[in-house]
Amino acid sequence: MTAGRLIVWRHGRTEWNLQDKIQGQADIPLDSVGLSQARSAAARLAALAPTRLFASDLQRAVATAGELAALTGLKIEYDEALREIDVDDWAGLTSAELAAINPEAAARIRSGEPQRRGTNGETVEEVAARFSGALKRISAEGTSEDTIVIATHGLAGRVGICLFLGIPQPNWPAFGGLANCNWVSLLNGRQGYRIEEWNAGSLPEPVMSDDPQK
User: Fold this and answer.
1) Annotation: binding site for substrate
2) Residues marked as binding?
């Protein structure tokens, strides 16, 4: 059995988000706006009657998940595999600072070429494999009646979902980044999971269409 719906939910805003600093696995808290975002988004997600709640163990994801836990009574289940990409010694740099310090690496990232983040950090491919593996484990623990919410991070969530769905890597950039406290809804059907909503901030609505995907 697999879970009926997976909601992959990005954390609320941090001060480093506002300052365009690379966070990676640096344990940066939500700012006051991020807390408000998490509280508002949690109220909407609670309406989906989630049955389990997972989170990265970094505090910005923990605090985001905590708002939903407070409304639903769900216990937060922590998983290190849901962390953001490891950027090692790039953490705290702005995009402009990285471009000045290491223009070759910054150019490869912009062009989509393989590039390890930081001196000893992860590649996009490595974080995608890590996150996709977590989605496979989590989804396999559910049933068709389950809606599982996963509070996590933007880059890891985006590329991990793409790999989980079997989307070829050259197509990953077509799936835009997630705004703070927005989410991706994956609905399980006859042919496996499909994207129900991407970068959503409102509840899914029924699809009126001649295209039978259920």
Assistant:
1) 10-17, 60
2) 10-17, 60
**C-alpha angle 48/50/56, rounded to 5°?**
125
Domain ranges within the chain, ordered by starting residue:
5-88+122-200
Residue tagged 């809606």 (tokens): 147
Is 194 buried (19+), middle (13-18) or exposed (0-12) by CB count in 10 A?
Answer: middle
Using CA atoms, how far apart are residues 8 and 184, in angstroms rounded to an integer? 5
> How many Å apart are CA 104 and CA 29, to the nearest integer?
31
pLDDT of 204:
63
Q: Distance (Å, rounded) from C-alpha 14 to C-alpha 30?
A: 4
Cβ contact 63:9 at 8 Å: no
Inter-axis angle of helices 32-46 and 59-72, nearest 10 = 40
CATH architecture of 5-88+122-200: 3-Layer(aba) Sandwich (3.40)
CA separation, residue 172 to residues 1, 157, 158, 164, 167 (Å): 28, 12, 8, 12, 7
Per-residue tokens: 177: 């980044």
One pLDDT digit (tens) per residue for the chain, 214 residues: 799 999 999 999 999 999 999 999 999 999 999 999 999 999 999 999 999 999 999 999 999 999 999 999 999 999 999 999 999 999 999 999 999 999 999 999 988 888 999 999 999 999 999 999 999 999 999 999 999 999 999 999 999 999 999 999 999 999 999 999 999 999 999 889 999 999 999 766 655 445 444 4
